[in-house]
Amino acid sequence: MAVSGGLSLAQALRLRARLYALVRGFFAGRGVLEVETPVLSAAGNTDPNIESFSTAFSGHVDAGARERWLRTSPEFPLKRLLAAGVGDCYELGRVFRNGEAGGRHNPEFTMLEWYRVGWDHRRLMAETVALVEEALAMVSRRTEVWVVGYRQLFLDELGLDPLHAPVDALRGPLAEYGIDPAGLERDDWLDLLITHRLQPLFPRDRITVVHDYPASQCALAKIRPGDPPLAERFELYLGRYELANGYHELNDGAEQRARFERDNAVRRARGLREVPIDGRLLAVLDAMPDCAGVALGVERLLMCLADTDAIADVLAFPFAEA
């Protein structure tokens, strides 16, 4: 196998090993602890746009729930560690998402996720940029950095106000794509505008950081009051690839439970199975210190480093060959 950037299989594997070493050195130098958390959990991810793998435990019933879920990220157990007082920490490990297989997706992939106590999303944005810049320097690449608010990005590039424009106005720039509007809501159209109209035009040699999203896209982020209120989250792109998604983390157990329950309500409405809520996380979330966290897709970064559009080029064995 050879990647489009000219690397052999062995070279691609060495590139991954070099990146892992760089990541570990980066965080060791900043005093961030590497940890390991469970891959199997009694709780799953309620996000309606993410499907989890599940499996069955055949041992003694005293061990707990028989159905276990493969993690889609290490977020929930990492937050439990933060609540226990572990402090700044990160995990570099495998995660799993059902149904996501293709040229740029693999159902099993590597995620780097880390948390900084006492930080907000803006401070973490700068550290995420620094890590990506160090990784690029490893292959003798440099980029410019553009930091832009979510609303300003839409105003500058599309002439649309994403917080106030009617849905029909959001649908207009997507007319040529023949998208079936059935079941699509406002946030779906905003996401489609990013993936179809904005993201493809991001320059290859630019890191783009988009921050302060609509409150309706808060996920696990804090919402900053205002007119309108905004979710304190960011996404980082390298060229047209989304690499990282970060939050000023919500640490309100009651609010987080309500969000999980809303997710499951959306699942019911879509005819999807409801997913068990992580009660252990909710029980300690109020004790989690103020912090910011971010998850970065390692294969996406490797694809950029290897200059390839195929995720198979940076895997030892892609899903079809596993």
Number of H/I helices? 9
Radius of gyration: 20 Å
Helix content: 25-40%
Q: Could you say what the CATH architecture is?
A: 2-Layer Sandwich
Supply the CATH class: Alpha Beta
Work out the number of β strands: 12
- Could you give me the name of the CATH homologous superfamily? Bira Bifunctional Protein, Domain 2
Order of helices and strands: HEEEEHEEHEHHHEEEEHHEH
- What profile does the largest beta sheet have? 9 strands, mixed
Low-confidence stretches: none
Q: If you average the pLDDT, what whole number results?
A: 95
Query: What proportion strand?
Result: 15-25%
Distance separating the two termini: 15 Å
CATH topology: BirA Bifunctional Protein, domain 2
- By secondary-structure content and strand pairing, the structural class works out as alpha+beta
Q: What does the overall shape look like? A: globular
Number of domains: 1
How would the blueprint of this fold be written?
Elements: H1 9-28, E1 33-34, E2 40-41, E3 54-56, E4 67-70, H2 75-83, E5 89-96, E6 108-117, H3 121-138, E7 144-149, H4 150-158, H5 167-171, H6 186-198, E8 206-214, E9 223-224, E10 230-238, E11 241-248, H7 253-269, H8 279-284, E12 291-297, H9 298-306
Parallel strand pairs: 1-5, 7-8
Antiparallel strand pairs: 2-4, 3-4, 5-6, 6-12, 8-10, 9-10, 10-11, 11-12
Helix pairs in contact: 1-3
What does this structure look like?
The chain is α+β, with helices and mostly antiparallel strands and 322 residues long. The protein has a single domain, classed as BirA Bifunctional Protein, domain 2 (2-Layer Sandwich). The chain is 33% helix and 22% strand. It contains nine helices and twelve strands. The protein has helices at 9-28, 75-83, 121-138, 150-158, 167-171, 186-198, 253-269, 279-284, 298-306, and strands at 33-34, 40-41, 54-56, 67-70, 89-96, 108-117, 144-149, 206-214, 223-224, 230-238, 241-248, 291-297. Strands 1, 5, 6, 7, 8, 9, 10, 11 and 12 form a nine-stranded mixed beta sheet that branches. Strands 2-4-3 form a three-stranded antiparallel beta sheet, with no helix packed on it. The longest helix has 20 residues, at 9-28.
